[in-house]
Amino acid sequence: MTDDVRNVQEALSTITEHWQPHRLTSLNDYDVKVVKLQGEFVWHTHPETDELFMVVTGRLTIQLRDRDVVLDPGDVFVVPRGVEHCPKATEEVHAVLFEPKGTVNTGDAGGEMTAALQELD
Fold it and tell me: Which Pfam families would you find in this protein's record (predicted)?
């Protein structure tokens, strides 16, 4: 996988479910994931790591306890480790995430929205 050229738009076109991250590639100890988002996720933290969101299409709101961060296409935002957050997308958003391998999408919250990382075909 690391020797192949990967196309973000092509990869996103294969995803059918929201909030189900797919590994696009890996870099050192990090996964680069693509995901489609719509609706509101769960409030959670990642106690051991930062989480980077990069919006490809759509508008993503990352709710923090003290403010909302709104991301448009091309915008990047890093949620610092341990900061409680809740992503929300009124319309479908396509995004890229950068996280250490093994990072669970629901962080410390767990629950029914926890997704196993999927591989792209």
Answer: Cupin_2
For residues 89 and 59, is the Cβ–Cβ distance under 8 A? yes
Largest distance between two CA atoms of the chain: 42
Assign residue 111 a region: left if phi > 0, alpha if psi is -120 to 50, beta otherwise?
left
Q: Which pLDDT tens digit goes with each residue over 5-34? A: 899 999 999 999 999 999 999 999 999 999
Q: How far is CA 23 from CA 19, 57, 61, 67, in A?
A: 13, 18, 22, 29
Q: Which domains does the chain have, with CATH numbers?
A: 8-104 (2.60.120.10)
Answer positive or negative: Cα dihedral of 99, 70, 89, 5: negative
The three-point CA angle 4-10-12 to 5° equals 115
